[in-house]
Amino acid sequence: MKFITRKDVLLQIKRDLIGKDAYRGVTLTYSWMANQFGHFSLGFIPTFILYKILSSKTEISQVEIWSPLIIWGCWILFELYNFLGPLLLNVPIKKTTSGKKTYIFNPEWANVTFDTLTDLCFFGIGALACSLICLYSLPIMIGFVILCLLSLYPSYYWYSTKMHLQNAGYPFQLRLSQWNFNMQEQHKKMISDFLNCEEKGKHLLLFGSKGSGKTSLSVGIATEMSIRNNRCSYVTATKLLSMFFEQSDNSNLSPGSWTWHDSSLLVIDDINPGGLIKKDILRATLFYELLNNPHYGPFNIQHIKAMNIIWVMGNEEPSEKVEDTWEHLLGLIGVPESDIITVNLGGA
Fold this sequence. Notes:
The chain is α/β, with parallel strands linked by helices. It has 2 domains: 6-168, no CATH class; 176-344, Rossmann fold, CATH 3.40.50.300. The protein is built from 12 helices and 7 strands. It has helices at 6-17, 21-24, 28-57, 63-88, 109-134, 138-168, 185-196, 214-227, 237-243, 284-291, 297-306, 326-333; strands at residues 93-95, 101-103, 203-207, 232-236, 265-269, 308-312, 340-344. Strand 4 (232-236), helix 9 (237-243) and strand 5 form a beta-alpha-beta unit. The radius of gyration is 25 Å and the shape is elongated. Mean pLDDT is 87; it is low at 96-100. Residues 162-291 form the IstB-like ATP-binding domain. The chain crosses the membrane at residues 37-54, 66-84, 122-153. It comes from Pedobacter steynii. It holds the Pfam family IstB_IS21.
């Protein structure tokens, strides 16, 4: 079921354009539009300056063509450095036994490339638009129209993708490739398999003490899923418990939004603090009791069982009784043992 439609996109654009930022705050979609307008301006303004200089100080012919091409070429070189520099030279990396530096999780190169090409498209549109204003040229007009047409799909994709990200409610922005804490190779493979699995009903239990990176890892995984236009939701355990007693209501949501039970991936954070607090404050038995309440128990269980969930825990306590473990809780809900993935990130 597709939650973000063209109508939702148009409604979000209307909300972003009408109203004062100081009053309503800034959304990710608004930031994306402002960013692209900035790229347009960075193509337009330097082209205007260069055109005036070349036309008044030199005898170069076809200044209206050379000015935008020179400026656009400079931005292409800059973006090439901007693309390769941080990704290949200043990466959040670990050292292998051979001393070679590498990512813990590889970047989504195709996605980053697509983003870079989108930026270059808006640089070019700005440069060519300025040239047309300074002096009309048919080749420039053809190039301008082509770039505008090419920008339509990337604009729709990135704007709707930003809607997926902002509707998820993440506490901060983080790509998975930026995560740089310690992790065993076998756990890295588990995370990758969970991220790329197309089956539903998979449950990832992330254990770890304070400072082990479990929250940022969960946000990084979910962010990659959001960028793939999946419906993801971030919620703390305390807030989710109150939602177990609420009637489903989509009427007050922002355009294209969804409730926790409509999510394809749910991140449940702060289930327990971990660190020096060894015992669970929120016991699995109490969680199940509130989940399976008399009013909405079957409804809650049905959705918890069916969706993919990342459970962000505290310390893994091996001395717990079987009935007090979170694996046992998932078994009561009806989740097969084969669909439960446990990763312990250890200490900081």
